[in-house]
Amino acid sequence: MNADKKTLVDLYKRTLKVRLFEEKVWDLFGQNLIPGTLHLYLGQEAVAAGVTAALKKTDWIQSTHRGHGHVVAKGANMNAAMAELLGKKTGSCKGKGGSMHITQFDVGVLGATGVVASGIPIAVGAALSAKMRKANEVVACFFGDGASNNGTFGESLNMAAIWKLPVIFIVENNLYAMGTPIKLTCPSQDIAARAEGYCIPSTVVDGNNALEVYEATVKAVERARKGEGPSLIECKTYRMRGHSRFDPAKYRPPEEVEFWMSKDAVEIIKKIAIENGALTEKETEKIRNKLQKEVDKAADFAIKSDYPAPEEALEDVFAEVN
Amino acid sequence: MPEMTYREALKQGLREEMQRDERVFLMGEDIGLNWGGAFKVTKGLAEEFGVERVRDTPISENTIVGAAVGAAITGLRPVAEIMFGDLITLAMDQVCNQAAKMHYMFGGQRSVPMVIRTVFGGGKNIASHHSQSLEAWFMHTPGLKIAVPAFAYDVKGLIKTAIRDPNPVMFFEHKLVYDKKEEVPEEEYLIPFGEAKIRREGADVTVWGTFIMVHKSLEVAEELAKEGISVEVIDPRTLAPLDKKTLIESVKKTGRLVVVSEETKTGAVTAEIAAMVQEEAFDWLDAPVKRVNAPDTPVPFSPPLENFFIPDKERIARAIREIV
Known about the structure:
Chain A is α/β, with parallel strands linked by helices. Chain A has helices spanning 5-30, 45-53, 68-73, 78-85, 119-132, 151-162, 210-225, 254-261, 265-275, 281-304, and strands at residues 60-62, 109-111, 139-144, 167-173, 176-177, 180-181, 202-206, 231-236.
């Protein structure tokens, strides 16, 4: 294990923060305070936590339609994130984006996108930019098993490989593209196998174990910073809930659900942290209480914030020409 | 002032911007050392600026545009080239869902300063996948600026403005204007977006058209002048923003309008122009607005078929005579 105690605490905090944020979101949704739909990150927290813990603040992430966890783990202002989900003027996108476009550029989020696989080329472009600007920044690009069947996956891996770009492809393989199991859509059950054709090193990790994700990401970041090019990390994980708002996910076999529910991302990293003497049970509770307060405060801020004025719909189509 | 082809003027504009701003770089298929662009626009620039800044790409249109988006939001000024306008279909998600919408849907957090150059139009007998005019699709997408330069002087000034704009700009060229020559200043100049140019003043009828149709309309105007018909010809130069004022004022003066483009007729840019003018200047119109377009078919290959498809001077003249 390469991680020191401080890192284990960081991993626990990030994993738990995302969990508590999403549980609060689910709660507010139940109170009808969140319009539209939601793709909750519950269950997959360790992926965002492990990846972002290995990045600097000046590094970038590219998010997806299931993006709350990525943004929160990267260090987003939770008030603005929560307010965006509620469609408020104080949201990070002024209420113009919502759940699928939750983005905070100033903490290194390139964007969250509603079109599956569309973020991959953008991450490649940001990595190209980092290289051309000689900025030594790294880009982590999140996407799912479903996205790896889209053409941009192949195009982007190829382009990143030929130009040796500092990008890390993070495949969150949660076994289902909406309701379609990966068994029906991928000839290999490991997406990582596809990287070899593009001469990109890849690895498969337990996506519910933040430490495993972190350690794989550290290696990939090192490779990227040395100018050696892209890597791909496949994180095997699972949604605790359905694909979106009204999906009870009845298509998943009960024994499969039970297996994954027993692999709770928060419990796993908590156990590792305690076993390695990074935290005591009491300290984990203290952290939980503190984070819960932050999340509650964010929800309170979001609820009390104003909606945008209707005619603000006409603003921001174009950036102003100087 | 030297005479320059449209191609040379465009290259000069790109060169000046690359010299001025090191964030500017070009990327696209076959734009670099071996080929210099399918229409030779970038020939010599890879030698001048290096292959990092004049970057040959794999045949991956969606990722070319997507990578330009990623580069633009992180501090560079990419100019992506799509070899033929028809192939932009492969990159529609990145153009219309990403580049066009990012500034809006992220609440103005980041602008997307990028240019996508591509070329439209028929007349080269290269059939349905290399000859279309698809401007309307992009005019129908809020968040994109659109330049449609038809003359050498304009293409230089407009490409420079496009590169400096903080928004995504679709920069459309036309295959048959690359060789057209005009006096072009060697020194720097910019042409603002949203300013149409009255190419010829007239009193009886306004003709509004794009690309090669501006050139044809000017020839028609010259011929009709001999019959005593005075034709005013307007070249919009950009479609977004659109200079409505110049057109509306012209229509108020002439009372008649013919709109001309090489697009297929239904849902074309010209249809939007016709609708806009009847909405804003109905009381000044003395006749119905006439549309001159290609028929609603794919672009055919065989010369007699393609010649029939593309509006010619005869059809423009006929439309004018019908309402004058």
